[in-house]
Amino acid sequence: MRGLLLLLAAATLVMGTQPMVPANATNAKGKWTLTFNDEFNSLDRAKWRILNDCSTTNNCIYNDELQVYLASQVSVSKGNLVIEANNVPYVSPSAGARRYRSGRMDTSGSFAQLHGRFEARIKLPSGQGMWPAFWMMPRGGRCWPMDGEIDVLEYIGKRMPHTVHGNLHFANACNRDLHSAANYCGVTGGAKTLALNDDFHIYAVEWTPTSLAWFVDGVQYFKIDATQCRTKPAQLIPTKPFYLILNFAVGGDWPGNPDATSTFPQRLYVDYVRVYKQSAL
């Protein structure tokens, strides 16, 4: 979500809905232990930092996006988190003039974890210029993207309406434009499609010391490991605890801007966010 030029892994998927992973789910390596969850029966500000009056002028928005992030765009309704994007202009001394309002929240001050399963049950908005995401950044990280960025879910609306993206960004320097063999590691993922806007789906990443795997509705659709990196395999898989981010951008370099077909308001619904550690055998 932070930037596009260092896209390391991207993949998409088609499949039917599968049962979610319960709190005591098992896999081949052992049980998952729940370490963080929010079922969104209320808006828990002890868990989430909700950004307010946040825009390009105060380094909260990237990629030529058009929105300002306001706390008023984030709410809870009927057991779901709701992040609403609308086309009501906003002007403030810090944010400047913005054409759209939306929301962003993170756990940077309350929760971060190294390795595990990170999942959310989400219903996506639709339309040209919509760019919701569930992603993670390193707590105490160096300049982006030296310590990595993990995108559990990115979606870019009308441009790719049936495509879910799972990404890892990484480089051994700060410059977003580094594509040389000495500084950039590229891995190519598969591409499939999935009906995304009609219902909720479960988006997840499983992160180990040696690999990252992406899932939708319990089905793995992409995986990378350190051996796939051309340059510095030991650095490919992130090594710092990451915190969680939920946001809904409008416009930008990747999805393009809203057009005459775009309708507002649009809403991103999140039923829950859950994080697990793998228990010892």
UniProtKB/TrEMBL annotation:
Gene3D superfamilies: 2.60.120.200. It holds the Pfam family Glyco_hydro_16. InterPro entries: Beta-glucanase-like, ConA-like_dom_sf, Glycosyl_Hydrlase_16. Residues 1-16 form the signal peptide. GO terms for biological process: carbohydrate metabolic process. Keywords: Signal. SUPFAM superfamilies: Concanavalin A-like lectins/glucanases. It comes from the Eukaryota. Residues 14-281 form the GH16 domain. GO terms for molecular function: hydrolase activity, hydrolyzing O-glycosyl compounds. Belongs to the glycosyl hydrolase 16 family. This is GH16 domain-containing protein. It comes from Saprolegnia diclina (strain VS20).
